[in-house]
Amino acid sequence: MLNYFNILLCYCIIIFIFQVINCQDNSSPPAFYCPNTTYTPNSTYSFNLKALLSSLASNSSRPNGFYNTTSGNAGSDIVYGMFLCRGDVSPDVCQNCVSTAVKDVTSESYCPNGKVAVLWVDECLIRYSDQPLFGTATRSYGFLNTQNVSEPQRFLSVLGNVINELIASVAANGNNRSGKIYASKEANFTSLERVYTFAQCIPDVSSSSCENCLRTAIGNLPSDGKRGGRVLLPSCNVRYELYPFYNVTASTPPPTPPSSSPTSNDRDKGGIASGVIVAIAIPIVVSILLVILGFCWIRSRTSREFNVVEEITDEDEISAAESLQYHLNTIRVATTNFSIDNKIGEGGFGVVYKGKLPDGQEIAVKRLSRSSGQGIEEFKNEIVLIAKLQHRNLVRLLGYCLEGDEKILVYEFVPNKSLDYFLFDPEKQQLLDWSRRYKIIGGIARGLLYLHEDSRLRIIHRDLKASNILLDAEMNPKISDFGMARIFGIDQSEEITSRIVGTYGYMSPEYAMHGQYSVKSDVFSFGVLLLEIISGKKNSAFYQSDGGEDLLSYVWKNWRDGTPLNIMDPIFAESYSRNEVIQCIHIGLLCVQEDVNERPTMDSVVLMLNSYSITTQPPKQPAFFFRSRSEMLPKGMDSDQSKSKSMPLSINEVSITEMEPR
Would you call 186 helix, strand, or coil by DSSP? Predict the structure, then answer.
């Protein structure tokens, strides 16, 4: 009988081992980046690449899980390479991961004959290029789980807190003895679920660059209550799940020391004791097996539910303004010496040109007016500040040029002009159906939330309007023109100014009348913009054609009378979601309330846009002061109207930021 139990026990243990192995195979799908640059087989570059990959594989057992090297002599055929293993994995696991990745990266499935490649798998990443790896632009990937959590609002609060602790822990681990810069954190979500988070930087970056990189990654994590998400950048990575995807350290009691040889009497008792032990051990092993099987099932299901949602362009973190500087000759060549044929916009700040860099990248070049009174050092500091604002719904600053009297800003080129170009044109607004407008509303809200809460700086935009929302090739919105923006301290909530700047029709009453501005000033502007997007009517021009009634009064009247859908743009016909439209009108009216404290934060706005059941507070009558220009501003205060003009080819009307750290 005892032998039977022993055999059964061994059988269970074998099954247990196989299940663990199978479970470990249920990893998330690899991600890779291969730009369209190839080398010739059997070339010098090909030879150097093979040597480099061989070097990476042979050094893959390093204790710190990181290695970077080059292969070949200086010149066009030199290859730069590195690998980074996840901080919690053992040297053996790291070695196996790197060895496999080295073989896979040049295969047909990933990057055959690629001069540049990045391959991410669960336990490691490898990267090589014909250019130096640090301080150069590359791409990174965002993943999200397609399933939602049960309580998204509370989940985001829990996740936000644990992520902040995680970043602090990574920074604290920057100088540890192992040379690894990583940390993991856990937090309770429900009685049955915990949030597991993990973040890591490569050892060769500074602590400030590590933190900046992680902040960029966090800004691209899903913000709508997904069950899991991760962002993979070449210099850092961040991930969270509702299951332990890394090695969670657990303490185990020491093994019991062996007993001395039993007497004959003890042998008889020992037989009984062995049976008892086996009887106890079998249920324990079976229970463990069931737990492992359940865990593996959840993990395999989760990995199938993970999708790559987008590629996120990332520039390695900058350490000084000079790293963003372009030579004036480069800008002249790109714009054909500022040819009038390349002119795409003009305003009080100067002229905007379309350009193309030698590598084919299209750019928008803003040549600032020479009458700008900003000093050189202030200009450089401002560039660094703007460059740190990295979000998919913000226009991206690529660099600047500062030579002689020239002050030039270089931005990403956004091909579909600005929102007002489509929204207020009777013909072009046909291209903005409800689904596109709803997507634009959500993107603007997320970009504004990033400025207010999620970036390292708290930014008050102060000039949010349709002409400052640019649209990319997929009609995704990008907030632009930080020329009137202000930086707040972490604990600062309000500022007062005697110089009112902004655009008529979008300014909040407390700002226009008393010079008080805060994040709630931007919320008011967002509310006006949201109602414009729904109605297709411009707020500042509404009263001119409708008997003196402004847009906010018109929307409020229909809301109060129970006919909110009357304000919709007629082009929607029947192609719209009634719940979405009414929810958006409700949010818009909440945002334009006169009492600052009654307006929601952008965090609440984003949550309301993702759930029809969260909004319960009825809106109050909006601020009615857009009756005439003389009524709007108190005597003695001037309104600095936005001077940018809409032109048929105006692609990127973004002005110089006048940020003032507080």
Answer: strand
Supply the CATH number for residue 123's domain: 3.30.430.20
- Is the CA virtual torsion 34, 136, 55, 123 positive or negative? negative
> Which DSSP string do the residues of 620-638 spell out, in sequence order?
PPBP--TT-HHHHS-TT--
CATH of the domain at 567: 1.10.510.10
Q: What angle do CA 587, 591, 595 make, to 5 degrees?
A: 135
| Angle at the Cα of 234 from the Cα atoms of 53 and 96, rounded to 5 degrees | 45
Torsion angle, alpha carbons of 625, 628, 631, 637, to 10: 110
* Cα gap 171→212, rounded to integer Å: 11
Under 8 Å CB-to-CB from 634, ≥6 apart: which residues? 513
| Pair 511, 590 in one domain | yes
What whole-number distance in Å separates Cα of residue 190 and Cα of residue 515?
Answer: 45
Strand partners of residue 634:
none
CA distances to 140, 230, 385 from 220, rounded to whole Å, are 11, 9, 19
Q: Is pLDDT above 60 for 512?
A: yes
At a CB cut-off of 8 Å and minimum separation 6, what does 631 contact?
A: 625
Q: Read off the pLDDT of residues 429-477 as tens digits, 9 standing for 90 and up.
A: 999 999 999 999 999 999 999 888 877 677 888 889 998 899 998 999 9
Tell whether 216 is covered by a domain.
yes
Residue 240 DSSP class:
E
Tokens representing residue 266 in the block = 């003890």
Annotated catalytic residue 463:
yes
Q: How many structural domains are present in the chain?
A: 3
Residue 378: its pLDDT value, please? 54
Q: Give residue for tokens 């009307």.
A: 653
Question: Which residues constitute the domain of residue 567?
Answer: 419-640
Q: Within a domain: residue 253?
A: no
pLDDT, position 20 = 45
- 181-188 and 194-201 as β-strands: parallel, antiparallel, unpaired? antiparallel
Active-site hit among 420, 463, 481, 550? 463
Query: What global pTM score does this model have?
Result: 0.49
Q: Which helix (H) or strand (E) holds 419?
A: helix 419-423
322-375 residue pLDDT tens = 567 888 999 999 999 999 999 987 765 678 899 998 888 899 998 887 665 555
pLDDT score at 574: 81
User: With the CA atoms of 368, 374, 376 and 377 taken in that order, what torsion angle do they form, in degrees rounded to the nearest 10?
Assistant: -130
Gap between the Cα atoms of 443 and 317, Å rounded: 24
Which residue, among 320, 407, 318, 405, has the nearest Cα to 365 in the 3D structure?
407
Structure tokens at 378: 């202030």
Query: Does the pLDDT at position 507 exceed 60?
Result: yes
Question: pLDDT tens digit string along 583-613?
Answer: 999 999 999 999 999 999 999 999 899 876 6
